[in-house]
Amino acid sequence: MTDLHICSFNVKGLNAPNKRSQICHYLHKSKVHVVLLQETHFRKSHVPRLSHMLFNQWFHSPSVSSASRGVSIAIHKSMPFVCQDTLCDTDGRYLFVKGLIGSQKYTFGNIYGPNSAQADWLVETFAKFGSYAEGVVFVGGDLNVVLNPDLDSSSCMSAVPKASLLKIKSAIASNGWLAGWHDARGRERLYILFVCS
Q1: 58 pairs with which residues across the strands?
Q2: Dmax (CA) of the chain
Q3: What is the Cα–Cα distance from 194 to 197, expressed in whole angstroms?
Q4: Per the count of CB atoms within 10 A, which of 10, 86, 92, 159 is most buried?
């Protein structure tokens, strides 16, 4: 593939059929190949059937204990992705999908960080993803952290202690990851991280 378009959305719930339809319509117009969705609010006991004709491969990490989490990855039908393996947690906080596009291996990761004690959780999750990932690697999601308060927050402040921010940044740097895009307002704390090997 010469171009691979990936996007990440915190959807704040996808249980309503009309909202799922709106998201898929938007993705179709945007010509996205891979979409990472956070806060789907799917429960393990009930994941809606997502059979959109444009996105024929859906992978989910629903939460066992709460309807306020959940992450999903959707693959467009134009991308000849052959899934080889998936790894997710029972809390709906991360999902890693590994497979082939032609002869090239790809790994896609989607992370939805907690609202507290983010540093330890993110460092542990990054380590899991780092040991799992192979080939060309893309990881994204909502870390629930403003990594650069001076740039990304109107108040230039972060609720996360400076030592924790440094720990998270160190974990990102040690994996060779770059913050590729984030909301300039900082309010939504969206980060898409890219790794290419």
Answers
A1: 74
A2: 48
A3: 10
A4: 92
* C-alpha count within 13 angstroms, C-beta hemisphere, residue 61: 24
User: In this structure, what DSSP letter does residue 1 have?
Assistant: -
Contact criterion met (CB below 8 Å) for 34 and 108: yes
Q: pLDDT tens digit string along 22-57?
A: 887 888 788 889 999 999 988 776 777 765 668 889
Prediction pTM value = 0.84
Q: Average pLDDT, stretch 51-78? A: 85
d(CA 82, CA 64): 27
Secondary structure (H, E, C), 36-83: EEECCCCECCECCCCCCCCEEEEEEECECCCCCCCEEEEEECCCCEEE
CA atoms within 13 A on the CB side of 159: 9
Straight-line distance from the first to the last Cα atom of the chain, in angstroms, rounded to the nearest whole number:
15
Q: What is the DSSP letter of 31?
A: T
**Span 150-171, average pLDDT:** 78
Tell me what pLDDT residue 86 has: 98
52: which residues sit within 8 A by CB, 6+ positions away?
A: 20, 24, 74
Please report, as a single letter, which amino acid is at residue 52: H
For residue 139, what are the β-bridge partners? 109, 193
H-only helix segments in the chain: 17-30, 118-132, 149-152, 162-174
pLDDT at 108: 95
Q: Bridge-partner residues for 141, per DSSP? A: 111, 191
